[in-house]
Amino acid sequence: MTEDIRLLAFSAALGFVHIVAASAAGLGQRGGLAWAAGNRESEGEVTGAAARLQRASKNFFETFPLFAALVLAAAVSGRQGGAVAWGAQLYFWARLLYLPIYGFGIPWIRTPVWGVAIVGIGFVFAGLFGWAGPGL
């Protein structure tokens, strides 16, 4: 398995962590297991860390499909390694940091970390088309 595909798999696992973290954090505010077992006519409002984790999860699932599509396109076209692998590294590690940074509400760091993940997607895109420089 190549590094970029491995990081794609780890990123998918991270998506699962996002779902569980957001769900678990908001469960108590929504009414506990009775709400979870019910028909959920209402999403139920959450605040604080639970709301931040919910937004972090939504943000992850806005970028992950783009990342996954580009990594898979690189794999199918034989453009793995180099900039694609670097981009996958940037994306995964930034998204891994993003969850606790957003969850704990740490100001001024969340946006640059998100930016690193976006740069990672850009590297994957550049690598897919062979636009990266030598050594990447």
Automatic annotation (TrEMBL):
Record keywords: Membrane, Transmembrane, Transmembrane helix
GO CC annotations, alphabetized: membrane
The keyword Cytoplasm appears for this protein: no
Gene3D superfamilies: Membrane associated eicosanoid/glutathione metabolism-like domain
Transmembrane regions listed in the UniProt entry: 90-108, 114-133
InterPro entries tied to this protein: MAPEG-like_dom_sf, Membr-assoc_MAPEG
Entry protein name: MAPEG family protein
Species this chain originates from: Methylobacterium currus
